Amino acid sequence: MPARFRLTEGGRIDRSKPISFTFNGKVYQGFEGDTLASALLANGVHLVGRSFKYHRPRGIMSAGAEEANALIQVGEGARTDPNLRATQIELVDGLKAASQNCWPSVEFDVSIVNNIASRLIPSGFYYKTFMWPASLWMTYEKIIRNAAGLGKAPEGPDPDSYDKTFAHCDVLVVGAGPTGLAAALSAGRSGARVILSEQDATLGGSLLSEPDLQIDGQPALEWVAAARAELEGLDNVRILTRTQTYGYFDHNFIGLMENLTDHLPQSAKPPKLPRHRLWKLRAKQVVIATGAIERPLVFSDNDRPGIMLASACRTYLNRFGVKPGSKAVVFTNNDGAYAAALDMHKAGIQIAAIVDLRAYAEGPLTEQARDAGLRILDGHAITATAGDKRVKAVQVTRLSDDGESAKAVGEHIECDLVAVSGGWNPTVHLHSQSRGKILFDETYACFVPGDSAQASTTAGACSGSFGLGACLSQGHDAGLAAAKAAGVKSRKKGSAPQAEDPNAPGGADRDFLPARWLWLVPGDKPLGHGGKHFVDVQNDVTAADLHLALREGYRSIEHVKRYTTTGMGTDQGKTSNVNAIAIVSQYFGCPIPDVGVTTFRPPYTPVTFGVFAGRDIGDLLDPARKTPMHALHEHAGATFEDVGQWKRPWYFPHEGEDMHQAVNREVRACRESLGVMDASTLGKIDIQGKDAAEFLNRVYTNAWLKLKVGACRYGLMLGENGMVMDDGVTSRLGENHFLMTTTSGNAAPVLAHLEEYLQTEWPELEVYLTSVTEQFATVSIAGPNARKLLAELTDDIDLSAEAFPFMTWRNGRVAGIPARVFRISFTGDLSYEINVPASYGAALWQAVMTTGEKYAITPYGTEAMHVLRAEKGFIIVGQDTDGSVTPIDLGMDWIVSKTKDFVGRRSLYRSDMDKPDRKQLVGLLTDAPDTVLPEGAQLVEKIESGPTMAMVGHVTSSYHSPNCERSIAMALIKGGRARMGQKLYSPQADGKVITCSVSDVVFYDKEGERTRG
Amino acid sequence: MKSRYSIFSLMRNALSYHEKWPEAWRSPEPKSSYDVVIVGGGGHGLATAYYLAKIHGIRNVAVIERGWLGGGNTGRNTTIVRSNYLWDESAGLYEHAMKLWEGLSQELNYNVMFSQRGVMNLAHNQQDLRDIARRVNANRLNGIDSEFLTPHQVKDLVPIIDLRGNGRYPVLGASNQRRGGTARHDAVAWGYARRADEHGVDIIQECPVNGFEIENGKVTGVQTAKGLIKAKKVGVVVAGHSSVTAEMAGIRLPLVSHPLQALVSEPVKPVIDTVVMSNAIHAYISQSDKGELVIGAGVDKYVGYGQRGSLPVTEETLAAICELFPSLKRMRMMRQWGGIVDTCPDASPIISKTPVEGFFINCGWGTGGFKATPGSGWVFADTIANDRPHPLNEAFSLERFNSGYLVDEHGAAAVAH
Amino acid sequence: MLEIKCPYCGPRFETEFSYGGEAHIERPKDSENLSDEQWGEYVFMNSNTKGVFLERWVHTSGCRRWFNVARDTVSYQILAVYETGTKAPKLDLRKDV
Amino acid sequence: MVEAYLRQSPLSQLALPSRAADETGDAGVSMAERPFRRIVNLRGNPKSEAFVSAAKSVLGAELPLAPNSAAAGKDATLLWLGPDEWWAVSEDETPPLADKLRDALSGQHASVTDVGEGYSCIAVSGPNAIDTLAKGCTLDFHDSVFAPGSCAQSDMAKAAVVFHRLEDETPSFEIYVRSSFAEYLWRWIEDAAGEYGVAVTG
Ligand SMILES: Cc1cc2nc3c(=O)[nH]c(=O)nc-3n(C[C@H](O)[C@H](O)[C@H](O)COP(=O)(O)OP(=O)(O)OC[C@H]3O[C@@H](n4cnc5c(N)ncnc54)[C@H](O)[C@@H]3O)c2cc1C
Ligand SMILES: NC(=O)c1ccc[n+]([C@@H]2O[C@H](COP(=O)([O-])OP(=O)(O)OC[C@H]3O[C@@H](n4cnc5c(N)ncnc54)[C@H](O)[C@@H]3O)[C@@H](O)[C@H]2O)c1
Ligand SMILES: Cc1cc2nc3c(=O)[nH]c(=O)nc-3n(C[C@H](O)[C@H](O)[C@H](O)COP(=O)(O)O)c2cc1C
Ligand SMILES: [Zn+2]
Fold first, then answer.
1. In this complex, do A251 and C3 lie within 8 Å of one another by their Cβ atoms?
2. Which end of chain C is more exposed for a tag (fewer CB within 10 A), N or C?
């Protein structure tokens, strides 16, 4: 059964492909090529939603991206999308759509009481009330929140995937109306790499709504088809339909969002095709050909369903073959809207009247309407409208000469459609986003682009040229010029397409003038006393609201916007902003440009969050860096900890063990027999050059010139502010060759820090730095049996304490693999770090594990390592320091040279640096040896009864130490070193207090015999 | 008092079709001289003027604003208010502000919609957990409400959160300040403006300050687009433009100004009832009373005076949001903008006297000064009125960058917002 | 997203670079003899220029070289790129400030 | 030397051969791991006659001096990485170059460092190779900008990489990535190429 308002022929819909969909639970039919809006209109459905604040019935107002009214919830559950514009939703089989912001239904919405009470809730009412009693605000707020919002957020994780891509081109053309097509053709023919972006599914722009125009001697749409075919044949041109250019950023960087699958039924979506794609495009040149948007008139109760833009009526008729009503009143201030009257008349819609604000209606189209015998009421205005869920009548009254008031009693005209035109606004959004100037054009009463700030031009209706002929030639010229400016040497020229309008006097170059600019159409009652003159229909902002804001001193247009919320809806004021500005200018009696405009911001129309994430979510959000031995650790059941981007084994629980038990076992193994850990993640920097030692001397706090080849030394690195930045062991591999290690998380920052000083402060130093972090896999063995194990694995290194002492390194073979073995220790036990080529890391690990079996070799993770080093009082940069700690604070004066300069040195001597109450690193021993202080616990000198207590410091590291058989902690305490033995208290969140005393920070093997043994 | 706002005045005015509402503030021409000129009509400047008049009885005050009042960062921030800062000095200052927030609507007779819906900072790794514990403990001992939440408690408060964070950013816990929340940013500026005006303060908009008159090391006036205005004392509170403005008085500051961006989604019915912040993955989210999701992103790394942020930052932030809240992937960004924030090396503000006598500076609030607005104005007014820092802002002197006594709120304190 | 012309690798996107703040600030050689204030000036103070700013960048994801850039901090237009250790070229500062 | 079979490539965990088995017919993108490349990082001053000629004597070809360009040496492919930095990349079987370079350059301000163990190489080719790479990299891979024979250091997704475009009719790239990022990057590219069809090859 064909829908009631569908024409039997005409339009670009495919009548052979019916589509069924549901709206508010009811099933309807449409055709391929329909939008949800056109299909609803074809079925006579005009009431589609409720407004934000007053919950007034709202219909479909436009036929494009500017739609402010017909916002729809599409889909269900996790795959639902709120606030979609019905005018841009392509109809797809099985589409489920529903009205939003209404309860229980769009037909009967209880919140309509807000409309009745609207006198009490003008703009900004909430700033003036809900203040008493103060305690009730949270309750009021809850009610306000529930009433606000439009659609509903999805209810589960989005099952769809999103994509993003970078792209480059010589010329981006935005908009594929006649202007954009002409530009793409001329630029494409010249050989430039062109991208053509069109938000619609189809090329043609406004031509899709034009029945009669001709271009280059053929019907306009045949020209469009030919243009498309030609462009598709050029391999230097890419056409992106369903792709809005949403943002114009610095350096001609442009954001586009492509919709790839929303128009396909679920079953027809290719499984690996993402839903939306973000294009991040660098264009050498941009041609903005985004057209213009028709402006509504601001008159009394201008928001009823059935009140639409005149151009939208033409689009529904000509593009979709849908009659938007059966009896229409056209309301205009210009000649252009007569095209809508004529088209509707031709299609059999009764034109009850054309109400024209102009004192005398004239113009080429006006004359045609006169000739066609249509009733024209010039010098008249619609002063009131009636109809609950759809407009059913208007009151038309003669205007005073100045247009300020309506005379006498008007005529009541019945209708079910009002087609409105208040002129046109060029779509200058992108131009303005690019920081291009915009100017006010007095003739057309609209803002037009001024000078560009970036490599872009505007052309066609977007630049304020409304005739088709001008659009085509401007587009053509802009495309050519852009290609040239992008440095393309033209292959061939071609001439601009020529337009004709066989039916129209004035030909294809007519625009919508003459017009009369009457920004606020008088109603039958004073403003604000009865009917509502909506400016922003989505946010329910009326002209009276604007006046109220101005009266209250919110004079800047930016204040007006924020106080009334005009232009702040999902449409961002595409149809309302200019009207609001004009009404403000009238209030002040100043020229419109003096009011200024609010800032155009991205996006042009809303862009899905998911597309910004693309595939960079889930396990691709951030690289999980893995060592060569990772799989073995996984196999061994390790629990991993993130250290920077690295995955490091945290501990290796045996079956039935909790973390505590596992860590205790691992720690004990390292002291009693043999532990092994994967230390591959340590940063490694290869340093070569004749000034390498001098360089180290400048970046570390201690001295490096005399380190012997074959030896290693611990170093501390500061920032220029004197605070500890990193530490690690550096080894001298040759006279001019060092290998530096850094903490795992700091490898890149340290290399960057070194390069910075090398290149910018000391370019005279002959030093090269190369990251070799991943060149080596590092297996660290620790424990009394470490030497024995190593002895079994190597036969070419003399492991005796004399030949291979602590803090030296040797080359040799370990398990047959060429290796460099360092005798260094972070655990405080006999320990070796074996470095082998990374691809042998797993092999070495396995060899060590197998050979170590007889020593009950125990793999240990970062947690056990932390306990072991804490037993020795070794710091971890980032845990025991926080960017506000100096080496002196750490008690590491011994490593700070007094005789040379180094990065950060001078900062250590500032006046506040040697204050006795600076926080210093000390140990803490709890009174109850089994109680482990929580890390992050704060300490006080005495317990007060009240909530506030003066803190003296906090716990940075704290563990149960199996080797000390008690808890141990490290803490930064004000003047800590002078407090040895002092009792401190740590109040816990649960009210308990842990008592402890200040101690030395080394808890185990104070003499370091185990390390050196 | 000119016209009290209340439900009754609203009803009364409804009868006269809201045609009789008085101006919230005047738009006066500047006088030739003032006791104090405040440069910058953001929340901090307006609050300073208000407290100067209200508490210190200094009513001959002008606030000089380059554009429209509240149009700087006050009008473009993500509105998060909390006081759970780490160091004693910061805690003192922000908690003072918090107490003022709690009575601000009544104090100003302007509903600033201060919504104590709670502010949560997520922990994603072991070091986050340590830092949070340290801060929560410190807060409690400073008398600031602060609690640790387990992942399950987080989920209860924010049902749409994905605790697994897909493995990369699991939610291991959070700190929570229940008294924290949001406030309607514009209303804060407007409310202070209205009350300051009522106390006689002249608010001069659309009037850039171009220089200062300084004689013998003492400030005597302000050069503006509307001519020279004499002043006994000058307080500069211009956020992103602090270096530029201080330079006019020959003062150098340790600030970097760069764009910080934010964005809002389309409005929807309530989906998230608290404020959730994740420093590790750069995302801050709350839902405004109107229904938009208000999302704060990171800063562009470079110096910038363009009130816009770059796309990579948006991508990173929204990826984080999608990661934490997978059901929000289909929501859409409605508007995106930037503000210019002035960050200090230690992420703490400067509220200080300067080498120029009578010339005071309040800046360096960086990405997080909205929450301090009432407190900042309060201590700054006190400092200006008495020519010496109030104990609450003593630590925030300019001098600290020489002596080394920094109040380093980086890292541990969850800096931003 | 800025496009920065690395003097060595050619034009690349902003994300390949790291920012290094103000250029031409030399590290004092005799920090010993500086007052706290002079040292504080070197470590912390910043011109933070609105307008054409001479700043340092490093091509982190490319050649890892440091270099200098003259950039308008309002329009973000890049007026010049030049090597570390060389003087800023003469610039037409009227442009777009 | 221990048995070479004990060596493991960074992508060995992904079981690429089994992925190769479910290869699709008309894949837009082919992917493969090229493990165990030997890479020597060479630093020196290209304006120094001595440096350039010493390098040439070992490598058998001039070091490429034009930015982002590659050259074929006797036993190694030479990639320009920066104004004073190159890679000499060779297959595992070829004789090691590092020591020879070190000898030839001794006494000069230069550095020679083996780095190959720290990298894996992922080959990506096919009609949609460029579309795929564009998803993760800001570089313009168009023929007119990044012709066959070009190379560049850049980022791919969130990994730092070196691209080398091979002299091939279908777009073919080799992407060198630090081993620890290899698995991430492989999966990222595989996912990005999904819509074009992916074939994993030997
Ligand atoms: C995107 C974003 C999100 C943020 N989110 C939060 C948050 O969630 N929570 C939080 O606490 N903080 C947040 N902040 C920070 C917060 O907005 C600021 O710290 C705070 O608003 C600063 O207030 P102000 O009054 O000092 O500055 P502003 O409001 O910027 O006021 C300064 C005023 O000085 C004027 N001015 C400048 N130069 C001159 C001159 N020469 N002459 C006259 N007038 C001049 C400016 O026009 C401006 O109006 C955010 C900031 C941004 C940009
Ligand atoms: N006589 C009149 O009253 C009058 C008024 C206005 C327009 N016109 C006619 O309209 C036509 C204007 O041609 P035109 O090509 O300049 O404009 P157009 O409106 O025909 O085409 C603009 C195209 O840009 C697309 N677009 C807009 N913003 C976009 C974005 N951000 N991203 C992607 N696509 C976007 C639109 O979907 C549209 O297809 C001419 O035929 C002109 O005569 C006439
Ligand atoms: C908390 C908050 C909520 C906002 N909500 C909206 C909104 O609902 N609609 C809208 O258009 N803009 C909204 N904005 C953004 C403003 O329109 C505007 O972009 C911002 O104040 C910056 O000003 P500018 O874009 O004029 O430079 C909001 C801003 C903030 C700070
Ligand atoms: Zn480079």
1. yes
2. C
